[in-house]
C-alpha cells in the first residue's frame, strides 16, 4: 500500500511539474504567435508548415517508437540504453540524408516548391532530435518531470520566442521560424544532457537492440498512422488550396491544438510510465483511466465550448484583423478540444499494457477518416476541412476508448458516469460565458470580450467545484488535489 501511495504521489507531482511547464510553454507560444502573426505573412507560415510536415513524418518513421518502448519495458539495463542510442542516432543520420535527396519531390507533392531549402535545412534536426530520444525517455521513465519541464520551457523561450521574433523583426521572413525551430531543439537537447549525458555504445548489442525494436515497431506504426491523421488536413490544404490557406489553417489549428495537446501530454507523459509500473494491476489501471478521463473532460469541455462561441474575438486578439478567415475553422475545431485531449489517456493506457498493434490499426482508420473528411470538406474551404477533421476525431475517440475499456474490463456506462460532472459544469460555465459576452456593448474591444467570457467561465467552474464538489467535481481531481498536499 505504501508503494502504491508513493507512486500516486510521484505521478501527481509529475503532473504538477508537466502542467506548470505546459502553462508556461503555452503562454510563451501564444505570446510569440501574437507578435509573429503581425510580422510575417500567412504564406511564410505555410512554407514552414509544409517543410515541418515532411520532416516530422520522417522522424516518426525512424525515431518515434523507441522512447515509449524504453518506458514500457519492465526491466531496463544499460545495454538497452546504449543499443537504443546507437539505433536512433544511426536512424536519424540516415533519415536526414534521405530527406536532403527527396526534398524537391516532397515540396512539389505538397504544392509548396518554396519549402525545398527549408526541408533540407530541417534535415539537420534529425541528428539533434535523435540524440534527444534516449535522455527524454529516461527522464520520463524515472518520473523526473521537473527537469523535463525546465528543458522544454528553456527551448521554447529561446527558440520560438527570442530567436524567431528577433529574426522576424529584422526582416528575415519565414527563415525566422526555421532558425527558431532549430534553436529550440538544440537548447532542449543541452538541458536534457545535463542529467543524462550521451550513452556511448560501450554495451550496445544486437540482442538488446532487437528486444526494444520489436516493441517500438508497434509504437512507430501507430504513431505513423496518428501523424497522417493529424496532418492529413494540412497536406490536403497545401495540395488543394495552397500555401496561403495552409498558413491560415495552421495558426487556427495551433490556437486550438496547442492547449489541448499539451494538456493531453500532461497526462500522457506522466501516465505512460506510471501505468507501465502497474501494468499487471488492471483494477488500478481502470480507476486511473476513468478518473483521468473525467478530469480531462472537466478541464477542457468548458474551454472548448467557450472558445467556439467567441472565435471571432479570439482570432482578432491573438492574430489580428488580417487573419479573419481563421475564425471559421477555429470555432469548429475548438468543439473537439476535449476529445483531442482525452484520447491521449487511452493511448497511454494501451501503450502501458502493450496493446500497441491493436492501437495501430485504429490510428490508421483515423487517418483514412481524416483524409476523407479533408477531401469532402475542402469543397467548403477551410471551415469544411475543419468539420471533416472534427468528425474523424469523434470516431477516433470512440475507437480508442473502446480499446482502453476492453484492456481494463470497464464499461461504457462507467465511462459515461465519469464524464457527468464535466458535462454539468460545461453547460453552466459556457452559458455564463455566452451571457456575459452577449450583454457587453457593441463596439467594445475584442480583448474585453475574450477576458470577460473566459473570466465568467472560470469563475463559475471554481464556484461549482468548491461549492458542490460531489456534484460538479470529479473523483480524479479530488484525488489529485489530495496527492499534491504536503
Descriptive notes:
The model has no long low-confidence stretch (mean pLDDT 80). The protein has 20 helices and no strands. It is mainly alpha-helical and 486 residues long. The protein has one domain. The relative contact order is 0.11. The chain is globular, with a radius of gyration of 22 Å.
**In this structure, how is the largest beta sheet organized?**
none
Q: Mean pLDDT, rounded to whole units?
A: 80
What general outline do the C-alpha atoms trace? Answer: globular
What ranges have pLDDT less than 50 throughout 5 or more consecutive residues? none
- For the CA atoms, what is the radius of gyration? 22 Å
How do the helices and strands follow one another from N- to C-terminus? HHHHHHHHHHHHHHHHHHHH
Q: Assign the structural class, choosing from mainly alpha, mainly beta, alpha/beta, alpha+beta, or little secondary structure.
A: mainly alpha
Tell me the distance between the termini: 19 Å
Q: Domains counted in the coordinates: how many?
A: 1
Helix content: over 70%
List keywords for this structure.
486 residues, mainly alpha, 85% helix, single chain
Structure at a glance:
By secondary structure, the protein is mostly helical. It has helices spanning 2-39, 42-64, 66-72, 78-109, 116-122, 124-141, 145-169, 175-195, 206-240, 243-277, 282-309, 311-318, 327-334, 337-353, 356-377, 381-407, 412-439, 446-467, 469-472, 475-484.
